[in-house]
Design brief:
A hairpin with a 6-residue loop joins strand 1 and strand 2. The strands form two sheets. The protein has a three-stranded antiparallel sheet. Strands 1-2 form a two-stranded antiparallel sheet. The chain is globular, with a radius of gyration of 12 Å. The termini are far apart. The protein is an alpha+beta fold and about 80 residues long. It has a single domain (about 10-75), classed as Hypothetical Cytosolic Protein, Chain: A (2-Layer Sandwich). The protein has one helix spanning about 50-65; strands spanning about 10, 15, 25-30, 30-35, 45. It has one helix and five strands.
Length: about 80
């Protein structure tokens, strides 16, 4: 019996993908921070490193995931570039 790998949903485009293809953001007291090592405790939001997904995440994906409004100035940095 093979073990299935976990899948995550991008908050920008809502496509399901392997976690290796996504970047994880975590809400802290300082806003949203990119969790590059994927070890920060707490609820995470996953987004593809693609400007279109980033736009979707800013338009409501992050707010939906964290159940609170998120302003762009509260975010550490985009997952690309």
């Amino acid at each position: 019996m093979s073990r299935s790998r976990p899948l995550r949903t991008c908050v920008g485009c809502r496509r399901v993908d392997d976690p290796g293809a996504l970047r994880r953001y975590v809400r802290t007291g300082h806003g949203l921070v990119l969790d590059e090592d994927r070890r920060v405790p707490g609820r995470g939001a996953w987004v593809h490193p693609d400007p279109r997904c980033w736009d979707g995440a800013l338009r409501g994906g992050f707010a939906r995931s964290f159940r609170t409004p998120i302003r762009p100035d509260q975010i550490d940095r985009p997952p690309f570039g």
